[in-house]
Amino acid sequence: MRSSLEAGGVALTPRRSRLLEALITSDRHPTVGELHREVRRSFPRTSLATIYNTIELLKEAGQVLEIEFSGAANRYDGRRPKSHPHLVCIRCERIDDMDQLDHEPSFADVSAATGYEIASHRSEYFGICPDCSRDTESTERRSRPG
């Protein structure tokens, strides 16, 4: 990823490198605020504007996927920057990559079937994550008379 950014003319300053590292190593799909806090651990004077600007550069370079949600902070995926399915918990807002499906139709398949020139896609499944389900079950057991 670093070499493709540099080849594309994106200078990797120490702050940008730290942000990139935070994106690549996170499996949580962090928000800009979370990324800002993480970069500030190494570079305390980093502004929020720097994080936003760097995210934009990385998006333009195809190195980060922005996951947009109405009414919630956008999240970012630097590990898998191409569009792919996600599972989203409606209680805790956890986001997981959905690797279980290997039959996601290709852009070519969708284009051939519909006549559209496909540029990108989104696929999110909303539900309650296993952790929240366990919490609900244990709360229900404790509140039952017995």
Characteristics of this structure?
146 residues, Dna Ligase, domain 1, 5 strands, alpha+beta, 44% helix, three-stranded mixed sheet, 2 domains, Arc Repressor Mutant, subunit A, two-stranded antiparallel sheet, 6 helices
How would you characterize the overall build of this protein?
This protein is of the alpha+beta class and 146 residues long. The protein has 2 domains: 79 residues, Arc Repressor Mutant, subunit A, CATH 1.10.10; 64 residues, Ferric-uptake regulator, C-terminal dimerisarion domain (Dna Ligase, domain 1, 2-Layer Sandwich), CATH 3.30.1490.190. Helix content is 44%, strand content 12%. It is built from 6 helices and 5 strands. The strands form 2 sheets. Strands 4-3-5 form a 3-stranded mixed β-sheet, with no helix packed on it. It has a two-stranded antiparallel ribbon with strand order 1-2. Strand 3 and strand 4 form a beta hairpin. The mean pLDDT is 85.
With strands numbered from the N-terminus, the spatial order across the biggest sheet is 4-3-5
Tell me the fraction of residues in β-strands, as a range. 5-15%
The third-level CATH topology of the largest domain is Arc Repressor Mutant, subunit A
**What is the number of helices?**
6
Distance between the termini: 57 Å
Helix-strand category: alpha+beta
Unreliably modeled segments? none
Helix content: 40-55%
Give me the strand/helix succession.
HHHHEEEEHEH
CA-atom Rg in angstroms: 19 Å
Broad shape: flat
**CATH-level-2 architecture of the largest domain:** Orthogonal Bundle
Number of strands: 5
Whole-number mean pLDDT: 85
**Full CATH superfamily name of the largest domain:** Winged helix-like DNA-binding domain superfamily/Winged helix DNA-binding domain
In total, the number of domains comes to: 2
Largest sheet: 3 strands, mixed
